[in-house]
Each structure stands twice: as structure tokens, then as C-alpha cells.
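Exam revision sheet. Question 4 asks you to relate a sequence to its structure. Input first:
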Amino acid sequence: MEVQFHPEYKSTLADPHPLFVSFIEAAKEHALCLK
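Answer key, C-alpha cells:
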């Protein structure tokens, strides 16, 4: 049996899933390191 997690189905713009928030924060940090 396999399970696939879809946080995008529970997220809204006003209340994003923590997974998306941490992904965006990591992307911003990475972009700053490349400068």
C-alpha cells in the first residue's frame, strides 16, 4: 500500500502549509547565497 501526501489540497493563500513556507524560505536563503 502506498500513500501520497498532498498538502496543496489543504493550503490557502491566507494559511499556507508549513511545508510550502519552509520551501520558500529555503529558496530565498539559497538565492541570497548565490549573490
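Marking note for examiners. Helices lie at 18-34.
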